Amino acid sequence: MSEQKMSSPGAVVDRFRTWNRSRIARRRLAKDAVMTVHGFKFNGLVGMQDGTFEPEETALVNQLFDSVDLFLNVGANSGYYCCFAQQKGIKTIAVEPVPSNVTYIAQNMAANGWGESITVLPVAAGEVTGFIDIYGVGTGASVVKGWANNPVNLKQTVPVVRLETLVHPAPDGQTMFVLMDVEGFEYHALKGAAGLINAHNKPVWFIEVIGDGGPVDAGTVRFMDTFKMMMDAGYAVYSATGNMPRLEWDDIVRLNDDPAAQAASRNYLFLDKDKNIQDLIGTTD
């Protein structure tokens, strides 16, 4: 009998899934950008092309773009929301660590003739500068091991930086809009952005916040702590869907105890509590 160790069934399956996801990612990346219902060319998820991807969130982000001057997209993926910002001529910084996603962004910007008002930073945002493993490709890639059922072998080591060392707060008279979608790592990305969070001229934040009962419990997701950090820094919290109610701490506690409610409303708007949301997007009734 050979002394070579036999691979466990789980390891074999993981390697196959790694190969298959990599193959699909390469095939998608080779496609040309197509004209979307949004009026720009785009290569990415079909839902992003035909208008079925996050329709409420997309509409809200477009409303916000009418009232902001700077856009910081943390976890930019294939550049979907960056395209809307570029369409409206908004200066944009895209932070995206997955190499294939960076290629998507570059191709999508080039397909539309954009480039002068966007900066793409191929790094992850975190609490400590250094390097970190990120698992998966595409929209579900995450530094949280096991997230979105990503194969453990489908990982890449990428640089990680503190956002506050890369981006300065907007000057008085201008509004920065930060959209963060980092698949369960939001608390740690925000810990590295204290200079932005606590700025005199606070940005408007749109953050996907996943609960501790989300895709994986890796001791990394910090649902309650994420909201506490932002509320302690002087932000009011609103749901980013439906009639956008303002959420108080008791509402956050109830969400924390209700995984179904968390799954139904994962995107939140954080706004300086001394400012009026109607000034940004009109009525929320």
Description:
By secondary structure, this protein is an alpha/beta fold. It has a single domain, classed as Rossmann fold. It is built from 12 helices and 13 strands. The strands form 3 sheets. The chain has an 8-stranded mixed beta sheet, with helices on both faces. A 3-stranded mixed beta sheet has the order 6-8-7. Helix 9 packs antiparallel against helix 10. The chain is globular and about 55 Å long. The N terminus is likely disordered.
Helix content: 25-40%
Q: What is the spatial order of strands in the main beta sheet? A: 5-4-3-9-10-13-11-12
Bin the strand percentage. Answer: 15-25%
Question: What's the number of structural domains?
Answer: 1
The run of helices and strands is HEEHHEHEHEEEEHEHHEHEEHHEH
Number of helices: 12
CATH first level: Alpha Beta
Please give the radius of gyration in angstroms.
Answer: 19 Å
SSE layout:
Layout: H1 9-29, E1 34-35, E2 41-42, H2 46-50, H3 55-65, E3 70-74, H4 80-87, E4 91-95, H5 99-111, E5 118-121, E6 124-125, E7 130-135, E8 155-161, H6 163-166, E9 176-180, H7 186-191, H8 194-197, E10 204-208, H9 223-232, E11 235-239, E12 246-247, H10 249-256, H11 259-264, E13 267-272, H12 277-281
Parallel strand pairs: 3-4, 3-9, 4-5, 6-8, 9-10
Antiparallel strand pairs: 1-2, 7-8, 10-13, 11-12, 11-13
Helix pairs in contact: 9-10
